[in-house]
Amino acid sequence: MTQQYFTALAAYNSWANNKAMAWLYELSNEQWEQLLTSSFGSVMQTVIHIASAEKIWIDFWTKAPNPIYLSSHFGGSKTELINTWKTASAGVYDFIKNCPEEYYSTPVTFVYPRGGSGQLLYWQTFAHILNHSTYHRGQLVTLLRQVGFTQMSSIDLATYYLTYLN
C-alpha cells in the first residue's frame, strides 16, 4: 500500500465515473427514472447511491460535522446529481493524493445509514469505496442496457491501465 498505488486507483475511479457520467447525460428523463429490478429501482437511484457513498466517505475521512447521506434526501435534477458525483469523485482523488501514507493505518469512524457507528482503518475504507463504486458502476451498465442505452465502452481497470498508463 503506497500513496502512488492508491492515487492510481483513485484516478481510475474518477476516469470510470466520468465515462459513466457522460453516458447519463444522453439518457431521456424516462430512461433516467424508469423502474427496474436491481439493488436500486432505477438508473437515477443507483447514481444517487454511488454519489452518496463517495461523498459520505470523504465526510468521514475529514471528520465533517453532521455528515448526511445524500441518498436520504436528494431531490435535485439529473445534472445536479451528476455534478455532485463528479465533485465527490474528484474529492476522493484529491484526498488520497494529499494524504500522508502514515494516515493509512489510522482508524476512521463512520455512521451507518440506519444508525450506529463503526470503525475501520483508513486504507480499508479507501479500498471499500473503490470496490463499492466499481460494483455499482457494473450494475449501472446493466441498468443502462435495460433502458435501451448501448453506447458504452469498457470501464475496466485493465482498459484504464492499457489506455492511459502505457
What's the count of strands?
2
Largest sheet: 2 strands, antiparallel
| % residues in beta strands | 5-15%
Using only CA atoms, what is the Rg?
16 Å
Task: Catalogue the unreliable spans.
Answer: none
Relative helix content: 55-70%
Distance between the termini: 21 Å
Order of helices and strands: HHHHEEHH
Strand ordering within the main sheet = 1-2
Structural class: mainly alpha
- Global mean pLDDT: 94
Architecture overview:
With 166 residues, this protein is mainly α. 60% of the residues lie in helices and 6% in strands. The protein is built from six helices and two strands; from the N terminus they run ααααββαα. The protein has helices at 3-25, 29-33, 43-61, 78-97, 122-146, 157-164; strands spanning 107-111, 117-121. The protein has a two-stranded antiparallel sheet. α1 (3-25) runs antiparallel to α4 (78-97), α3 runs parallel beside α4 (78-97) and α3 runs antiparallel to α5 (122-146). 25% of the residues are buried.
Topology:
Elements: H1 3-25, H2 29-33, H3 43-61, H4 78-97, E1 107-111, E2 117-121, H5 122-146, H6 157-164
Antiparallel strand pairs: 1-2
Helix pairs in contact: 1-4, 1-5, 3-4, 3-5
Provide a quick synopsis of the model.
By secondary structure, the protein is mainly alpha-helical. The chain has helices at residues 3-25, 29-33, 43-61, 78-97, 122-146, 157-164; strands spanning 107-111, 117-121. The chain has six helices and two strands.
